[in-house]
Amino acid sequence: MTGAAGIATVLAVHRSRRHDFSKFSQATVKLVAEWGVEGDAHAGLTVQHRSRVARDPSQPNLRQVHLLHAELFEQLMTRGFSVHPGDLGENITTRGVDLLALPAGTLLHLGREAVVEVTGLRNPCSQIDRFQQGLMVAVLDRDSSGQLVRKAGVMGVVLTGGEVSAGDVIRIVLPPPPHGPLVPV
């Protein structure tokens, strides 16, 4: 579940007070238990994503924190896209952890105190193509059995608050088996 060096780290942290597609780089973000990233438009007890609010604003917010692996940016750059940390709207950019291979319920210990529980996959939307044409197709793939693979990161909820900064180590605690694949939330 971790990179070749075996150390998972936070590469960068981001937030935006507005419902913009990209988020702004910060030196530190504060995670608030059961809320999300302090000062971020997507923080809250109930759904904050506009399309989900329109359907049912009382749904629990399983998307308080968006985490994305920096290795995706490298893959996209080889395909001609210019994508950098924060561009795809993530709050936390990671390095050295295969986020997409984690099971739901995985606990990510970020920095000294914060704990985020992985709830599922980010389901990429058409805004990605408005950011850069063709990017939607580039963050989707098919596995050997033809199943759709979403590569745009994972979502989580904050169990324990704390400050998170670039360079922080990520400690991964898997839930008890059996483990199933992540599904979009």
UniProtKB/TrEMBL annotation:
PROSITE patterns: MOSC. Gene3D superfamilies: PK beta-barrel domain-like. It comes from the Bacteria. Residues 22-173 form the MOSC domain. GO terms for molecular function: catalytic activity; molybdenum ion binding; pyridoxal phosphate binding. This is MOSC domain-containing protein. The lineage of its organism: Bacteria, Pseudomonadati, Pseudomonadota, Betaproteobacteria, Burkholderiales.
